[in-house]
């Protein structure tokens, strides 16, 4: 599979509306190369289906502990073709849901927030916990603040309003 672009050297694969390329690339301005270090790829897929919920994005850091090494493999279907992922961590974005600058940048930065926690905190937060999601939202919201993201469109996402209020952004800024 050929990458469609790169973000701080991390290759981006899959399906993304061309008008959003610049918005994805813009995330470089508010992140450092160091924060992306270790990420093996960003995969843009349509209709992620992960244990009965449809997330906007996912950060995959490790395989289930119960799996044997030869079973370490993740299937991502892009353009009806199955891609097997054997090297983690990766970020997967549902670009069917993330169709706007706001959604795309927020989600990408949220997933990067999980990676930064996983790689830079001596005791990473428990995956899926409220603390972990709040941390990723705080990370994302703080960076989105520099990208002129209109937060109004994101307020229905769980814990986003809380993160924005905590970061001190005035929700009635207009
Ligand atoms: Zn998350």
Summed over residues and divided by their number, the pLDDT gives a mean of 88
Q: What global shape is seen?
A: globular
Number of domains: 1
H/I helix tally:
5
Low-confidence stretches: none
Total beta strands: 7
Q: Order of helices and strands, N to C?
A: EEHHEEEEEHHH
In percent, how helical is the residue content? 25-40%
What is the first-to-last residue Cα distance? 43 Å
What topology, given as strand order, has the largest sheet?
1-2-3-7-4
Q: How is the main sheet built?
A: 5 strands, mixed
- Classification by helices and strands: alpha/beta
Strand content: 15-25%
**Molecules bound to protein:** zinc ion
Radius of gyration: 16 Å
Q: What does this 3D model show about the protein?
A:
With 174 residues, the chain is an alpha/beta fold. It has one domain (5-167). It has 5 helices and 7 strands, in the order E-E-H-H-E-E-E-E-E-H-H-H. The chain has helices at 21-26, 33-36, 101-120, 130-144, 160-167, and strands at 5-7, 10-14, 42-45, 57-60, 74-78, 81-85, 90-94. Strands 1-2-3-7-4 form a 5-stranded mixed beta sheet. Strands 5-6 form a two-stranded antiparallel ribbon. A hairpin with a 2-residue loop joins strand 5 (74-78) and strand 6 (81-85). Zinc ion binds at residues 110, 114, 133, 136. Zinc ion (ZN) binds at residues 110, 114, 133, 136.
């Amino acid at each position: 599979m050929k990458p469609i672009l790169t973000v701080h050297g991390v290759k981006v694969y899959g399906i993304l509306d061309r008008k959003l390329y610049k918005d994805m690339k813009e995330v470089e301005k508010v992140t450092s190369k160091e924060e992306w270090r270790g990420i093996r790829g960003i995969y843009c897929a349509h209709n992620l289906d992960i244990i009965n919920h449809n997330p906007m994005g996912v950060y995959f850091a490790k395989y289930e502990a119960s799996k044997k090494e030869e079973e370490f493999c993740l299937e991502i279907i892009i353009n009806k073709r199955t891609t097997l992922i054997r090297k983690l961590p990766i970020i997967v974005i549902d670009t069917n849901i993330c169709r706007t600058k706001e959604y795309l940048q927020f989600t990408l930065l949220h997933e990067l927030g999980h990676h930064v926690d996983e790689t830079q905190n001596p005791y990473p937060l428990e995956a899926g916990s409220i603390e972990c999601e709040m941390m990723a939202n705080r990370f994302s919201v703080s960076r989105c603040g520099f990208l002129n993201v209109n937060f109004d469109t994101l307020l229905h996402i769980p814990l986003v309003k809380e993160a924005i209020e905590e970061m001190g952004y005035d929700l009635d800024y207009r």
